[in-house]
Amino acid sequence: MTLPILMTVDDDPSVSRAVARDLRRRYGQDYRVMRADSSADALDALREVKLRGEPVAAILADYRMPQMDGIEFLEQAMDLFPHARRALLTAYADTEAAIQAINLVDVDHYLLKPWDPPEEKLYPVVDALVETWRAMGDRPVEEIKVVGHRWSQRSYQVRDFLARNSVPYRWYSVDEAEGQRLLKAAGAGSEEIPVVITLDGRALIKPTGADIAAAAGLSTEPAAEFYDMIVVGGGPAGLGAAVYGASEGLRTVLAEKKATGGQAGQSSRIENYLGFPDGVSGVQLTDRARRQAHKFGAEVLTARGVVGLEARGSARAVRFADGGEIAAHVVVLATGVMYRALDAHGCSELTGRGVYYGSASTEAQACEDEDVYIVGGANAAGQAAVFFSRHARSVNLVVRGKELEQSMSHYLIEQIRAIENVRVRLGTTVSAAHGEEHLERLTLCDAASGATETVPAGHMFVFIGAAPHTDWLDGTVERDAHGFIRTGPDLLAEGRRPAGWQLDRDPLYLESSIPGVFVAGDVRAQSVKRVASAVGEGAMAVTMVHRYLEER
Ligand SMILES: Cc1cc2nc3c(=O)[nH]c(=O)nc-3n(C[C@H](O)[C@H](O)[C@H](O)COP(=O)(O)OP(=O)(O)OC[C@H]3O[C@@H](n4cnc5c(N)ncnc54)[C@H](O)[C@@H]3O)c2cc1C
Fold first, then answer.
1. Helix 39-52 and helix 70-80: axis angle, to 10°?
2. Distance 134 CA to ligand 1 centre (A)
3. For residue range 385-417, what is the model confidence (pLDDT) as tens digits?
């Protein structure tokens, strides 16, 4: 069997030997560890590996090497093995350069020398590298096959769903011979895409999210009818509540409409979450959280949207969109927010066919050699600009406001200014999107002069704020004028408790206008829209749940 490769390169042979020794000790069973004493030797070795068709899982390169430094080396190595994960080995004095490399060259981590003890300093980093590679890399594994059209909205949704749930899949276009062969074997016509072929060879024609989730081995059915706590929404807040609830002994189930991770799952790199100095991709962070929730015994249901909430005596029941219901002593609502739609002519018809909400990392490869447009002036748009600058020929950040400082973090503005192929177009809006099958052109409008310009564009990613997912709660819990759910002190208008409130106490801090229904994260009125605060509120909601259960 061909073992995937872990490559380490350092111009100091004693260091390169020592790193290789430590890597072999832990990973030698499952990976072949290769080492080189210079960038040139390492590149030669990687070329040979490429010709032999062997997979490379991760590359660890020293930063300071003569002739070619570690950053330059990693850039060249990426041309050979774009999916291999990358880490820089640096001395303390070079930390600054390493951090810049993380942002500009897409290095996953940096490691400070010395890395002793490896159990604490080296292995957690390499574990993360190989874990990411295993989830997304190019290793030869059994994969679900998706046959579809690059410009079909539903095909895009299927790929996005699988990617966000960290389910490995292989994509086949109906335009290619292999795609046609698979369609024929599945007995489907070109108009019946997408077709998903499961690991056991079943063909699912135009499957629903729940069909795909079940085929991918994700849970969709609750194991019980009654729980201590139901969490609605699987973003950071919901996952936080599930981890803390289950770890504290509550029988917990989490129902997620699409894929766990929520908005955070769309972030290419979260840099301000405590404990991740090199940043972490949203998919990685939430994949770990999901596994953590499982470890403590929480059930996580994917592709199960909730459409109803009802108080029945002391029980709280929720109803699923596709039928069925479950009940619990308490419910935590953590349904977050979703992107606002761009109000420009032609946009809705082209959504999923060149116009995307969120950063749609599945589209990164399709953007090669293209001029990409990103709309929005806040951090989410800034992160996407940095991300796509590595894939596209150029990135145009279209910002309605007159300056970025009003809406974007300072560190991101600095990063964007340092990237040559990102152009920021301030005071500009998108007034129309044009294209037959796929986005072809955009009309941009200069807000000050009203002048318009039509530019060629194949991909536009929109980040223009968000609205809460609470329409289904209309008439059930109290919401503010924008639809965010009111909680705790916010419910006490002029000292009066909410209508229908029958308890002899005020609502607890994260409690909604229904006792025993708590709210966490972005969907809560007055919440801070951050990953850390969402996770924190998820944990805090569990403390309130305990208090509520004790008083009953
Ligand atoms: C691209 C991007 C980059 C970001 N970068 C950062 C960053 O670097 N740092 C930072 O701190 N913050 C960042 N944020 C903000 C951060 O991601 C959010 O504040 C955080 O995800 C909020 O978590 P949440 O769990 O409250 O809601 P969400 O993440 O919105 O999750 C809500 C979940 O609930 C599900 N859901 C909705 N309705 C239902 C229903 N009826 N039934 C079942 N499930 C439902 C949704 O599908 C979703 O998965 C970023 C956001 C985006 C979009």
1. 10
2. 25
3. 999 998 899 999 999 999 999 889 999 999 999
